[in-house]
């Protein structure tokens, strides 16, 4: 997009952006890296047994023996924080990836094909939205028993319609464009058009959305733990630690702050990485 | 710092700072001893009370306990401070024979609409509460007939003598106006319709979403009511209640189940009283590995009562008998009861002994099992503490959170669970309360609470004998035998007895609060602090 | 689109809504049927139960009837708009819902307005000041808001603005219009935080996309003032994500508010849903599910209509519409 007119600074800036932002992205990658290490190794790298209760030391403030203090059953908060990374990270990752895969496929189909396919898919999306997510989770969890992977599965089912709608919206924008028309005239099969022509233009939004979904799932799973529908009681898990610790906020706030900070930090880092990816992808692959 | 970095971090820090504010100003207020002090006799114009129970309706047929607790509806008799039976709407009770009770009603008692209470109202109320559709009808089985023998005399005849009848009347019977019920047969107790009672607090309005509004009954037979208006606000959870307390939106909170957290979050004073809420761990006689006596004894040795009480937030006493000692004192002196309890086989905390017992079982190195828990009160921390204790001897208890209904269903239906923790709650002085609800063949049918499937033939005989006689000496002997049997077989490991807690603002006191007040109008005993 | 075209479109959508209601009610019923426990457990709780009582309650609520019979008993009344009584309270389902729906609607609309105002406003501001301090700050705050679970933000709002500074009440829905407005401010903010964050991100992305377009550069080159450019092109295109997401946002704030309702003890639809599901109160949960389905489908319908009104390409470029 080169013109002779002097463009306002806000519109360009691609060059400057890449140089200054890299510090922040590196920090985010470090954070995510640390979380992944914690998720993979869990209690192996924790200083104490995350499940060791000691009712003499209930809700103590941070000290030499317990760097972040203890929780309402006397367990070491720092060790639980490390062990809790696994359930906090793995679930949202699976949800974001699966939902992106399925949502993009359905959204592309709906937006590109239109007609009956679109109507069918969108009515399915409407149906999924008409059955309230929370109700579905409560009732299914009641029938099959609550559990972590059940909650993950259900969240995938509930997030796919959201992804579908977003991707369909962008696809609808792209589908009438000249390059699509051109590809069709050249006899390129539909599926190739969708995957190799349209999707690269959709991908920045899709990928950024996936990272948003990750952050959202992180908090949804925490919310489900709050309602008792997530991990089993006693499991170290950031969401569960947050909801359990809330009632003792005034005694050992660190027991609540620490998992809260980890959730915010992880989600924020993932989001910033997603944004960065989107900007890289959109300035590369745009065929406007 | 470069602007960009600062900005990104600043946004995150805003959240942290606000949390930090919480940290800085967090104090844990120790409960004040002044909450029980006698107060002044000044009139209290308005009290706002928080409750996190649901109050679906005021109809006694459909709800077992909420209406009486705010003092609106009363019974014929009530419990005094030591659990002894005292007159209420019945001025006196006579017993021409062990299976017949004649209630001589108090004269001059009026309902809130001014109509006098007569035997017709009492007979109607009793029959209404024992008809098959009534939720509390199970407490009236064994009643042969209820008749009015005059405008102020009601006779209740039982099929056979029953030592628990008086307690049942004090706990479950409420008297409402017959005329009102007949005018509103289908809607009595619903919002807008309400109910007609005799109590010190008149129900002005009621709504399951917003709560109750009550005001003092100027014509109450029991005297002057110093609390003029009461507003009961309903909350979703104790944490919300605690925060509302701290914000000054309520003056008191009823039935606090997590005392430690509530006190620290609300800054309230706690008034506590020993109650009959017993927590115990039951093990299924019919399922391996729990059906092995050595496994059960190992569990009994391994459970550390002081640990578990600390996990639940204190305000509980350890107990080793399924029948709470403060019910046994109905049948003997304190000294006698202490001697009795000490003479029973017991399992004081010892990991070594637990391991030794386990070694004699088919599972010397322990085993893995699942236990269900619910999101209610302190159930989850208690279960986690139990699991941690059992882990020390190699028994891995995996916890599974289920819904309240599923929990009840599992325990009262198929009973295929292994070891489960339960808190069972009664408000009755009678030592038969726990055995008659938890033991014996009658409680093995669907809906009964004998989830350990514990049914030795001798137990059924003891259960029947225990309530069939009114002689305290005989009953003490019978229950002693029962406790010996239970201690030898250990199907249920009694853990602790929880207090009832009421949180109060420092402006008020609640002198003389006992568990018996829960059945009546504890609210009207609140006084302004000096 | 012609009037007839609109009529057909609406008629089709409403027919689909009717079908949806049938499917939802059957799905809810089946799931409830499958889940363990029974409504009798809610009614009797820990009270001992006699066989007479059990059989009375079982037949009263048709609990021993076959699966389809139980569904039919409910459905045949429901089509006549008789939704029966709640088993727990014996109050009519319609009055139970009527008591709670206004709070949820008020809260939902309040949160929605806050979301749109903040989301679009901050999104545009961030896009216009792209790569500057304000942009990073807004995006950073949005991400933090997105990452904070609703029950946590609720508790902190209560602490900061209800306890430390007694500006707002911390529980209950209040009475009267201004009473409700005051009581529902903190819950609306807690609810709006997540939705606002999503909207900020999408609006910002949409506006950036528009700013990069040729026609904006051309308009500027022609000498149009910044505000003409803004309102003329940018705003119109920036509103697309708002409209696309409005259905979502509206449904979320009305029906997904259960965590916020729980934190602030608001008697709303969300709480009723959870309560009736865990208590297995079939008439009540069916009634609530129907209401929620209608609300969501109507919200999505409104969003689709608005989307077509705003973006001609979608309206004209698709033969099926």
Q: Quick gist of this model?
A:
With 530 residues, chain B is an alpha+beta fold. Chain B contains 17 helices and 19 strands.
Chain-wise SSE layout:
The complex is a heterotrimer of chains A (288), B (530) and C (321).
Chain A: H1 14-41, H2 77-83, H3 85-113, H4 115-130, H5 133-144, H6 148-174, H7 178-185, H8 190-226, H9 238-245, H10 254-285
Chain B: H1 3-25, E1 44-51, H2 66-69, E2 77-79, E3 85-87, E4 90-97, E5 100-105, H3 119-130, E6 143-148, E7 153-158, H4 165-172, H5 178-183, E8 201-207, E9 211-216, E10 227-234, H6 238-246, E11 252-253, H7 259-266, E12 269-283, H8 293-302, H9 305-312, E13 316-318, H10 325-328, H11 334-343, H12 351-359, E14 368-373, H13 379-391, E15 396-401, H14 404-412, E16 419-425, H15 433-438, H16 457-468, H17 472-489, E17 492-504, E18 508-509, E19 527-528
Parallel strand pairs in B: 1-10, 1-11, 14-15
Antiparallel strand pairs in B: 2-3, 4-5, 5-7, 6-7, 8-9, 9-10, 11-17, 12-16, 12-17, 13-17, 18-19
Helix pairs in contact in B: 6-7, 8-12, 9-13, 16-17
Chain C: H1 3-34, H2 39-44, H3 51-60, H4 67-78, H5 93-128, H6 133-147, H7 150-164, H8 177-183, H9 185-211, H10 214-221, H11 226-255, H12 258-263, H13 269-279, H14 282-310, H15 312-317
Helix pairs in contact in C: 1-14, 5-6, 5-9, 5-11, 5-14, 6-9, 7-9, 9-11, 11-14, 13-14
Q: Runs of chain B with pLDDT <50, length 5+? A: 1-32
Sketch the topology of chain C as an H/E string, one letter per element: HHHHHHHHHHHHHHH
* Helix/strand class of chain B: alpha+beta
CATH class placement of the largest domain in chain B: Alpha Beta
What count of structural domains of chain B?
A: 2
Overall number of strands of chain C = 0
Strand content of chain C: under 5%
Distance between the termini of chain C: 8 Å
Which architecture of the largest domain in chain C does the CATH hierarchy give at level 2? Orthogonal Bundle
Supply the number of helical segments of chain B: 17
Helical content class of chain B: 25-40%
What is the share of helical residues of chain C?
over 70%
